Amino acid sequence: MTSTSALTVVYNGLLQGYQFQMEAMKENGMPDSSFHFRSEKMRESLTNQIGSLSQMAYDLGDHDLASTLLSVATEFGSDATPPMPL
């Protein structure tokens, strides 16, 4: 496994954790105001984490992965487009 493959695994794990938490909040009937607050905080956190992974990929020399991750972070951070696994 290359070092950038490990970043892809970490990205997919972060994404799966985010999706799980979102579904858990919906299933548990969280009030709308709390759901909005928590989901926005989680979105902001995940955006920052994906941005950090992008920087790591760039530093490791995988510029294509860095660009892909940066695009995902930008789209997710600006218009909440749900990211897809890599």
TrEMBL record:
Organism: Aliivibrio finisterrensis
Source taxon at top rank: Bacteria
Name the UniProt record assigns to this protein: Uncharacterized protein
